[in-house]
Amino acid sequence: MYNASQDGRLDRLSVARCLDLYGDAFQSSRGNLLIVVEEPEERLSEDDIQFHKDAKAFPQGIPQPFEWICRRETINETHTCEDWLFDFKATPGNWTPFQSAVKECYSQRTDEHCKLKFSNLLCWVVAAVNLLKVALMLLVAFGRGESPLLTVGDAVASFLEHTDETTRASFTHWVMYHFLNLIPIVVSGFLLGRGLSMMTGNKDITNLGLGAVNTKTIMIPAPQGAGNLVVNALIVNTPQAIMSFIYLNYNSLYTNISLVTEWDRFSHHRKGLRVSSPPQGAQRNTYFLQLPYRYSLPIITFSAVIHWLISQSIFLVNLEIYGPPDNDLMNFIPAEYTYQPPDQEVSGASFTACGWSPSGIIAGTVANLCMIAFILASGGRRLRFGSAPVAGSCSAAISAACHPCEAEENAWEEPLQWGVVAAPTDGPGRCAFSSASVGVPSEGQLYA
């Protein structure tokens, strides 16, 4: 420090600036600090000038490296050094770490360390899964096989072209969908409450930030290594996988809503079938996103926002600690965490952990609830016409509506409408898709 002072390598800082720079839990650009205090009222003891350290805190949690700032303050479970730090920043004149008011500080800059970390195991797993995904997509796109029934139009066209002889002459579903979707919300709320109850000091989550790394919200750290990295990576990405399944759940619900809506329109408008295969005649292509834009765009937006909020709610944390080899703090770090960097003038320690953000969890939960509310609102609307019986994705019900009275040549390629195709006086009438004129069903009349 003396040589650095003589060489002009110390930056003079005000008390407020000193607290701002050294009150950071993860310091990367500043090192040794010289504090100039007023004339002490009494001689300082060795305990007063010794750097504050707590060797027992490291394996169970993350020690706050700025705890020396609060050396003479009372630190307990309800008021940590971080809480005191807010008070000191508001009134720098009250900061007396060594029994005397601080006049100014002299800070020494340090070289920042840059490092690229790479996991061979995770890289090979991701590459293998993506290759499998590409292979399956190519198989579905170019593989030879029967044409799948992906849309209502596919089903109607198929049953009109190939008559299904077996068909000639739900609320529980919604409850189960939303029950499964509410489970992650309930679990998130429970874990959030549990985490806040275990947090020490001030529990004001507005000071913790969204997706910010904080010593209060880092889970139990583990020594750096491939095994610990994979475990933590699985923990932080499990919610992302769950959200992907929830998105498929939502997509399935909206697919059913879209099917019912399109089916209902055939009872009032004559139009070509929307098919997934190359259109023929009056047939039309499917939507680019497989759903009408009024459905697909909102759920994609909701899904993207929720995925991002999840990434800000729980995330991977990797911390590096550097210090002189003879530094007392470095000597108290367990050996399994330490290593020797190429720079022989410093010692290093590293650990991997999971961080979590209360603000992110709350925001993600609110976004998920908004998505559920949007689904309930859009799914609870009455059908516009309501003439045709609701078939949904039931192939038997769709097939039953594809039996016109007379064989119509290539009817599946023509504009179609659902309605009454036969109304005998001595028996039930018949409703079906037809390229010819159809009637409107009469209330109280039986139809096959």
Automatic annotation (TrEMBL):
Q: Keywords in UniProt for this one? A: Membrane, Transmembrane, Transmembrane helix
Q: Which domain of life is it from?
A: Eukaryota
Q: What is this protein called?
A: Uncharacterized protein
Residues crossing the lipid bilayer are 121-142, 174-193, 293-310, 356-377
For the keyword Transmembrane, the answer is yes
